[in-house]
Amino acid sequence: MSRSHVFAICVALVVPAAPCAAAEPTFRPLFNGKDLTGWAGDTDLWRVKNGVIEGGHPDGGPIASSSWLILRDGESDAIVKDFHFRCEFKMGEFNSGVQYRSTRLHPKTFNVGGYQADFLNGLGTGGLYHQSHSGPTVGVGESVINEKGKGVVAGQVADTKWLYPRKYYAKDEWARFDVVCRGNHLTHFVNGYPVVEYIDRDDNTPDRKRRNDSGIIALQLHGGKGTDLRVSFRELHLKTYADAFGDAVRVYNDTDLDGWKPPQGEKAWSAKPAVRDPNGRCREFGKLVCDGTGKQPLMLATPHGPSFVFRCQVKSDAWKPSDKAPFKGADGWNLLEATVRDGKPRIELNGEERTDVPAPVMAGKVALPGTIAADYRNLVLIMIAQPK
Question: Which CATH topology does 28-241 take?
Answer without folding.
Answer: Jelly Rolls (2.60.120)
